[in-house]
Amino acid sequence: MKTTQLKNALFVSTVILALAACSNNEAGNRQVIKEPGKTITVIDDAGKEAGEPDISVQSIDPYEQVAITDWLDEGSVVAVKANEALGKMSLEELADTYPRSLYRLHLGTKQYEPLIEQKNVFLGEGRLSSDKRNLLYSEFSLGDPVYHVVNLESMKSFAITGGPTAGAVSAHWTDDGKVIGAAYSGGAYTASPDGEIAAVKGLPAEGLIIVRQMNGKTYYTSNADETLRMLDPSTQQETRLNLDRVSDLLPSPDGKQMLVVQYTDSIKKLTLVDADGANPKAIAEGTELGGVSWSPDQRLIAYSLKGAANGTSVQGLYVYDLLTGKSTRIAVDVDNPQTVWSPSGQALAYAVWDGKVFNSSVVHLKSGIE
């Protein structure tokens, strides 16, 4: 659900336009571009006044003691919850807890279908590749997690360990179906779905924090310098972007923009920028900010915010509409959630940790602009 008032807002190449099925919408210069496997809403409303909020909440469905981590389809999700059938953890420090397993949760019936189960470990994260064929998840009991990739058709899996990594510090899907992250051995790695692990050349050998990939470019920050940098692996050319103290980065579905979370000593802010760091647009800022995610068609941005307005403390989950340039609060008193959009973008799931268990909710949204 995508872009609003941007200077030079999303440029779509002539080749893509020739292949895409495009339709103009009455809401400004809006184009819906359909390509194999995805639909992106492209908006070019530069210079136009933002409209009124056009997002409303139809209903909110609670799912207790479970973390929804991704959507398999519009009616089922990947979910993490305690697995009492496996018995309690054997480690003395964890003897009062049950292992956590990955499930397919059917939202309508609230029925759970096991995806991955394992005794004496907590499984978590559960993020799907863009083609939904592979699942990236973590495994831990005490200490650092170990990341795994499993093919959901064959159920064959591998751990991101050994080779040039000595284990993965972080793990994120790339736009070409691989996994990228920082490695315990230093530097960064990529892992393909068939289990091939390789080092990423040209990055600092130590202290990497953010490691992401978009359109073949590697974006990173390090302990030595939290300024965001972009590396072109094909030329080894590095560009220092004008974005300092970056704590998170989320590439857009079409790879032309990104959401960047920056911080000062007391404030966090969310900014939309082009892939090269140009044309920054402020989305939100507050004392706490998180739960950031893109809707699949790139029109909507979810985020949680805590701050002060008119002398009053505010805290909640918001949706920013790039089509109107407005934010709508869709849930109150939501603290540090994880958020993930349904394939249609008409529902948003969020999970919150209460100190003992995760609880999730699915917010069904309605847009006045279809």
Core attributes:
370 residues, 4-stranded antiparallel beta sheet, 1 helix, 52% strand, globular
Can you summarize this structure?
By secondary structure, this protein is an all-beta fold. The protein has one helix spanning 14-19, and strands at residues 21-25, 30-35, 38-43, 55-63, 67-73, 76-82, 100-106, 111-116, 122-128, 134-140, 146-151, 157-159, 172-173, 179-182, 188-191, 197-200, 208-214, 217-222, 229-232, 237-240, 246-251, 257-263, 268-274, 281-286, 288-294, 300-309, 312-321, 326-332, 338-341, 347-353, 358-367.
Multimer state: single chain
Give the DSSP E fraction (strand runs of 2 or more residues).
over 45%
Q: Which structural class should the secondary elements be placed in?
A: mainly beta
Approximate helicity band: under 10%
Question: What would the average pLDDT be, to the nearest integer?
Answer: 87
Poorly predicted runs of 5 or more residues: 1-30, 33-37, 42-51
| Largest sheet, spatial ordering of strands | 4-31-30-29
Q: How far is the N terminus from the C terminus?
A: 11 Å
How would you sum up the major sheet?
Answer: 4 strands, antiparallel
Describe the protein.
The structure is a single chain. This protein is globular. It is mainly β and 370 residues long. The longest helix is centred in the first third of the chain and has 6 residues, at 14-19. It has a domain at 1-47. The termini are close together. It has one helix at residues 14-19, and strands at 21-25, 30-35, 38-43, 55-63, 67-73, 76-82, 100-106, 111-116, 122-128, 134-140, 146-151, 157-159, 172-173, 179-182, 188-191, 197-200, 208-214, 217-222, 229-232, 237-240, 246-251, 257-263, 268-274, 281-286, 288-294, 300-309, 312-321, 326-332, 338-341, 347-353, 358-367. The strands form 8 sheets. The protein has a 4-stranded antiparallel beta sheet, with no helix packed on it. Helix content is 2%, strand content 52%.
